[in-house]
Amino acid sequence: MDEKTSLFYEFKKGIVEENPLMKLMVGLCSALAVSNRVENGIFLGLAATFVIFFSNIIIASIRKRIPDQVRIPVFIVVIASFVTIVDLTMKAYFPAVYDRLGVWIPLIVVNCMILARAEGFAYKNPILRSALDGLGIGMGYTLVLLVMGVIRELFGTGKIVLFEKTIVTLGPVNPPLIFVMFPGAFLTFGCLMALLNRYEMSKKE
Amino acid sequence: MIERILRLGLTLLIVSIVAAVGLGLTYAVTKERIAKQKEAEEVKACIDALPEVKSPSELKEDKDLEKRMKKKVEGVMKVYTSKKGEVILVKARGYGGPINLAVGIGKDGKIQGVAVISHNETPGLGANLEKEEFLSQFKGKKNGDPLEIGKDVKPITGATVTTKAVLTDIKEALKAYSLFGR
């Protein structure tokens, strides 16, 4: 690894240059499924960030002791343990959100974003860098979920509800439901990608 | 060769043991709270379903009745009894997962109220099952009523699967009550 890259860059790259959803295109399935509400997006984003942060730290700290042949099973055990911790904690303290996120919390285990960072980054880098990388990637993931959640909930249901309080409303309109359903996820995501690419192309010129 | 295999196995073993201990601890810490949360949710739904019951202390879980009902009726999950009537917790498969309802049935065998415990239906469509105007139409229904869309039930627009699941729930609760209720 290039030691010249600053520590801050390790954190920042996950949000912009290597955003897991927009650039690396990993972890899309869960993102498309739960971004129908802002609240869901925030909680799944934070849950995934927690998992990726700690699994990156653990894997980076034991990487020299893990034989190459069994590294993937070790990664999975580490990741699955943190996911289960998140799962139980959310069930105990945020039952309402947990009910809505349902199967997507346990499914963080198979979110390729997390395994990709374990294999591609934490296995080759020291602890501090891996921690920052995990934090950055997690934040990047959460940010995209948040943006998609705002767009989909606002235009799909006409209002944004956060912790049982309506914070923004479009007034008495009959909004196009398609936004909160799966086709809306693909449309929103596609448009966001297009906008981002357009912006980067204009920057290059 | 043997040494290498042993090393691999041992690494996995150690990692798994550490993970298992961590998970065991988390489970022990959260177990009680999870059970409490779940029960609180159910009791709240029961009170919503039986308007005459005012405080949780009036309700009692009846494990024995529950066992007998479960044997005969598929969707029954739990039964709470009180002096004012019974609340049967039922579960049926909706569009996005199970729909859990609490159906409050009075001494006369008529539904006093229906409350939603949990569901995972599409927001804006099936999720409208929580609305008062949908749930209140089941008040006064009893076993033997047709409970059919278009006949005596006004469905949720655009959510036939959800409506049917709710009807299944309610029919099963009524059936269980008519078989064993007092």
Distance between the termini of chain A: 30 Å
Categorize the overall geometry of chain B.
elongated
Element-level helix/strand string of chain B: HEHEEEEHH
How far apart lie the N and C ends of chain B?
Answer: 71 Å
Radius of gyration of chain A: 18 Å
Number of domains of chain A: 1
Q: What does the main sheet of chain A amount to?
A: 2 strands, antiparallel
Classification by helices and strands of chain B: alpha+beta
Beta-sheet strand percentage of chain A?
under 5%
On the 0 to 100 scale, the average pLDDT of chain A is: 87
Q: How would you classify the helix and strand content of chain A by structural class?
A: mainly alpha
Number of helices of chain A: 8
How many strand units of chain B? Answer: 5
Which quaternary structure do these chains form?
heterodimer
**Integer count of domains of chain B:** 1
Strand order of the largest sheet of chain A: 1-2
Molecular structure report:
The complex is a heterodimer of chains A (about 200) and B (about 180). In chain A, helix 4 crosses helix 6. Chain A has one domain. Chain A contains eight helices and two strands. In chain A, a hairpin with a 2-residue loop joins strand 1 and strand 2. Chain A is mainly alpha-helical and about 200 residues long. Chain A is globular. The termini of chain B are far apart. The mean pLDDT of chain B is about 85. Chain B has a five-stranded antiparallel sheet with strand order 1-2-3-4-5, sandwiched between helices. Chain B is built from four helices and five strands; from the N terminus they run αβαββββαα. Chain B has one domain. In chain B, strand 3 and strand 4 form a beta hairpin. Chain B is of the alpha+beta class and about 180 residues long. At the A-B interface, helix 4 and helix 5 of A face helix 1 of B.
